[in-house]
Amino acid sequence: MTETDNLPLAVVCLTPQARDAALFLARSLGAPLHVHESVGICPNAETFTRMADRLRDLWTDAKGIVVFAPTGAVVRSIAPLLGHKSRDPGVVVVDALARWAIPLVGGHEGGANRLSEKVANLLGGEPIVTTASEAIHDLIAGVGCRRGASASDILAAIEDALASKHLPLDRLRMLASGFPKRHEPGLVEAAERLGVPLLILHDTEIRSRRRARRTAAARHVGLPAIAQPSALAAGRRTTCLVKRFQRGPVLVSIAQELCGWWVLDPDPRSTELPAP
């Protein structure tokens, strides 16, 4: 069970362009939907005139608030409401095309980091987590498994795959898998036991990373592969460290997410400031 399970959530939509995504998310989360009057008719939604007023009304009752609006507008709206990170709700901002889910405040204490991952999985977007504890982790484990594979099987395969390249477990940032595996109990439990998010990649992202060919994944779930393309697509500027590691019913690939400035300029000496 994650930090946001069984906690009151709310979805707020400021623009007509985000209406359908907000409606879908509210239904998926079982959360009330609040829309700006400019959005138009929206089934079972409450309307508001000023976003700042509506967020103020929700502030003390909702544990998590997902807002479809520009980040700057949300910052200005919630700035007067901020008290302490242990009491404030987690706020996640989503763009109109549902590409990004950004934990704005309450990353850990408010559950916004986990909420952003849940939102991204539902919308097929990407969570943009910037808290320091997540930033220092650079490994992604892509996981494919047979139906019913246990969490213990999956954890053992991940640990062995990392050990095969002498990679420490504490560098693991997330697990990634394909949409057909989103409800696999062992995979969900493995992520929870590791204390890392499980990112679900949609079919188009996986196909963009792997050419179609005859594989077990192709026969069973209609995809060219799951483990390696999931690991590569889950991050940015990824490179594959472990292409294919099989252990029992589990297949694991390990990708590393590289820092952009390091890729462009791998010589740390070039970042030194000139002498005065």
What does this structure look like?
The protein has two domains: 9-132, Rossmann fold; 136-260, CobE/GbiG C-terminal domain (Nucleotidyltransferase, domain 5), CATH 3.30.420.180. The chain has 276 residues and is α/β, with parallel strands linked by helices. Helix 7 links the parallel strand 9 (172-178) and strand 10 (198-201). Mean pLDDT is 87; it is low at 1-5. The radius of gyration is 20 Å and the shape is elongated. It has eleven helices and twelve strands. Helix 8 (203-209) crosses helix 10 (227-233).
Features:
disordered N terminus; five-stranded mixed sheet; Nucleotidyltransferase, domain 5; 11 helices; alpha/beta; 276 residues; Rossmann fold; seven-stranded mixed sheet; elongated
Low-pLDDT stretches = 1-5
At the first level of CATH, what is the class of the largest domain? Alpha Beta
Query: N-to-C SSE series?
Result: EHEEHEHEEHEHEHEHEHHHEEH
Number of domains as seen in the coordinates = 2
Provide the helix percentage.
25-40%
Overall strand count:
12
Strand order of the largest sheet: 3-2-1-4-5-6-7
For the residues shown, what is the average pLDDT? 87
Shape: elongated
**End-to-end C-alpha gap:** 55 Å
Work out the radius of gyration: 20 Å
Structure classification? alpha/beta
Q: Please indicate the percent range of residues in DSSP E strands (runs of 2 or more).
A: 15-25%
In CATH, the homologous superfamily of the largest domain goes by the name: CobE/GbiG C-terminal domain
Number of helices: 11
